[in-house]
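debug: dumping io for the single-chain case to check the tokenizer round-trip. Nothing else runs in this session.
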Amino acid sequence: MFSQSEDNQWFSRVDQTGAYLIDRPAKYFLPILNYLRHGQLIIDESVNPAGVLEEAKFFGITSIQPRLEQLVQLNVKPTDYTPLTRHQISLSLMTTPSNCELRCQGLNFSGADLSKLDLRNINFKYANLSDTNLAGANLSHVNFERADLSNSCLDGANMMAVKLVCAQLEGASMKGCNFEDPSGSRANMEGANLKEVNLEGSHMAGVNLRVATLKNSNLRNCDLRGAILAGSNLENCDLSGCDLLDANLRGANLEGCAFAMMLSALHMSQTLKS
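debug: decoded output
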């Protein structure tokens, strides 16, 4: 194995006992040697895994390279732009009094798993939550104004009185979300980008979607009673099975929409009752 690597041509000296002389850094080679002895990759905290990875590549030992690459990534020092993790926000939630607002404005949570957490009343304005898992989370009264939630998963989330003004939600999954607040507060999604979003089966009575973009979105079986959709772009939306009773559709773009099995008659002059 050590007389010639896969990618490098090199030869070791042999002493009088037949032992090979390996002229490589001992602290990086030792974890590999021990791995070859007992099959366990053990690296001391003082050893940089990047150096061990380079030794594994040099000797052509491919079986441990994926694990070493993971360790290298974990060893990267965080910067101001490194995404925050579930563990970090959980600690913040546990140490913040319930009567205080947790301010996460402009922070990076990209790719984090925040599913099923109680995130009520948090300020996520301008935050990066792209590709984040928020399924089943309590997002009541959360401020997502101008936040990036593109390609995130919010299936089954509680979104009563949520603020999503001008938020970026393109490609997000929001199946079975609840936007209805028994106290009468309304979710505000005015001007939000909801292109190709899956909202199937969501409870959205009274939601403000004025001038929002919902092109190619799935709104099958949504409850949109009294919703404000004035000036919104609903091009090619699937509104099959929706309840649009008393919804405001004045000025909305309904080109190519599917209206099969509507629960109430649709009138293009519909406006909200005062």
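debug: round-trip ok. Residues 1-7 have pLDDT under 50 and may be disordered.
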